[in-house]
Amino acid sequence: MAGIAPPAGLLRPGHPFLSDGVDFGDVVLAVVIAVIGFVLCLVSTMLMVWFERKVVSRLQNRIGPNVAGPFGLFQTLADGIKLFFKEDLIPSRADRFVFQLAPYLSLIPAFLTFTLVPIAGDFSGDGDGSSTLFGRTFFWQVADVPVGILFFLAMSSLGIYGVMLAGWSSGSKYPLLGSIRASAQAISYEAALGLSLAAVLVVSGALSTHDLVLSQASSITRWHVVATGFLPFVVFLISGTAELNRPPFDLVEAEQELVGGFHTEYSSIRFALFFLAEFMNTVTMGGIIVTLFFGGPAPFFDLPFVDVPGSWFTGFLLFFVKLLVFLFVFVWFRATLPRLRYDQLMDLGWKVLIPVSLAWLMILGGIRIARNGDLGATGDSVGDTAVVLAFAIGGLILGGLLVTKAVANARAERLDRAGLVLVAAPPPATEAPVHADGGHH
Amino acid sequence: MVFVVAAAIILGGAVGVIFKNNPVHAALSLIASFFGVAVLFVVQQAHFLALVQVVVYAGAIVVLFLFVIMLLGVDRTENIKAEPLTYQRPAALVGALALFGFILAGLFLSGPGGEDGAVALTGQSAAMVPRLADDVSAETSGAGNTGTGNTDTSNIVELGHDLLTRNVLAFQATALLLTIATVGAVVLVRNEGAEDLVVDEPGTSIE
Predict the structure, then answer these.
(1) A19 CA to chain B: closest CA distance, Å?
(2) How many Å is the maximal CA-CA distance in chain B?
């Protein structure tokens, strides 16, 4: 039975794990990969905390952690140890069972999402990303689920339970407010997240993360960020940040308003678990973005020096560099952008991101049908594509005009009912002296 | 083995939904039950259905339940002894028993092995079943599966094709129904003549 594994991924229907004939080596390999994945996830989370603190410090003209270890690298470790030795409090009005359950509900989806991300492998040329070590063939990801990307959606929608239940079970007001905001935000942005994902699926025709990387290999024009026309990537990045509850979408734990939001009542190791889940989610979201839109470990084009058989490490380096870019972007967001107000958050989600990604998805679908020659409008796939594009542009212009008109009408009517009239906004020059004389310092 | 564990989770969750006094605990039991169903779907190679089960039901609908529970602050023990309709309980019992009896009769009385009964109950032709079995056998033989093909997603392809050709009318009707429900909800909660809504409008002044 040794060496039975074909170069297909783990946990695919064709894999010996699911048919009969699982030998001991397969099981050991699966366990080893899972353990390595978990350790890698924890270590990268630890480094992410350090990275974020360091970069935010530099962006704010501070130095940041610099005492524990070289460049303050061990600061996170020290904080973690400290948290583990703190007293663990459960509020007297808390729902004890749910209160203790919530941190794990947050952490487990965070790690399960990480299992989807292919972190290394040779995707250049004919490489299919598999590697063979010790006579066993495997992929550089913990699990290649056949419906991979949907699994990501499922986990991201389950991750919200930890936050919601934590806030509810704490039995106090601020956490409850935080978790109500969290659930509203999750529901709103999940739709945009799913729609921008669907655009990727329409273009690539693949669901598993490994196939997604394969379909983007060896050419920068096949990267989905280009192939889907950039817009789904922007929508995904924004709604992904919202799903992470990271600034500027961190209303869930807005310190100035809600103390700590959903984790106000948490201390010690339970708080540490929330913290861990949050940063693990950030790393994973970066990895998912890289996998979905930037080719994961696949090289940009067939470079001669990466086209070495079995050069999985090149794939890892490429993945790492791409990941680092997005992690920096997340930190950059946090250091730069002010938090959205609640109504702005809802407006952005429902009135901008969802309509835009829905329209884009339909256009992409139309183009796809035309390219396959299934439309049959002009008898030529290029002509069909032109027809689809013309309809799309016409529809967008018409729809945009209608929406603008409708919004203007509704606003005029509302103002009319309230007895208000529109006046021109006062020129900004009248406001400037008020700040300039600085009477209220 | 997997079936036994999943079935136990489903039944345990279902019982929890009914007997927990706290609505939030009941919702959690509901999630457990949904997970059991998702596991059963995975066992039967219906990965897509399993994920939809988790994304839609566990991920969105129960979140909405919890949202409403938290927002309205109804998370306290309800008085379940109240009976708004007379003879509500006996009627429910009779109805449940009758439904259970019909399902059992459908399964065991029609056709050998109960397969026709299952088809009659679900309204599905058995066309998809042998197709799936073929796929599985083709994949387990390992031939032609190089990791690039869509063999493992043919299940989803089949489902999508079925949904948008043969069952397109039902599909569209469902979509329309949901849209009508949403529009109806918006109309119902719309507060006509609420004049204090516009105080924050930018660029306005009171005449």
Answers:
(1) 7
(2) 82
- Judgement on whether residues B177 and B155 belong to the same structural domain of the protein: yes
Q: Is B85 part of a structural domain of the chain?
A: no
**Cα within 13 Å of Cα(A72), Cβ side:** 17
Domain interval for residue B42: 1-78
**C-alpha–C-alpha distance, residues A288 and A322, integer Å:** 11
Question: Do both B71 and B100 map to the same domain?
Answer: no
- A422 to B193: CB separation less than 8 angstroms, yes or no: no
B25/B58 same-domain check: yes
- Dig out the tokens for A237 from the structure: 């990045």
Quick: pLDDT tens for B163-173.
888 888 888 99
The 10s digit of each residue's pLDDT in B85-139 is 777 888 889 999 999 888 888 777 665 554 555 565 555 554 444 444 444 444 4
Q: Is B59 in the same domain as B24? A: yes
Find, in chain A, the residue whose alpha carbon is nearest to that of B196. Answer: A418
B198 and A214: CB-CB below 8 Å?
no
Look at A164 and B66 and tell me if their CB atoms are within 8 Å.
yes
From CA A386, how far away is CA A384, in angstroms rounded?
5
A190 to B60: CB separation less than 8 angstroms, yes or no = yes
Q: Are residues B94 and B23 in the same domain?
A: no
Residue A122 gets the label, from left (phi > 0), alpha (psi -120 to 50) or beta, of beta
Q: What is the ipTM of this complex?
A: 0.70
Q: How far is B109 from chain A (nearest CA, A)?
A: 34
- For chain B, what is the domain count? 3
Q: Is A347 on the interface with B (CB under 8 A)?
A: no
In a domain, B84, yes or no: no
Shortest CA gap B161–chain A (Å) = 14
**Chain-chain contact of B150 with A420 (C-beta, under 8 angstroms):** no
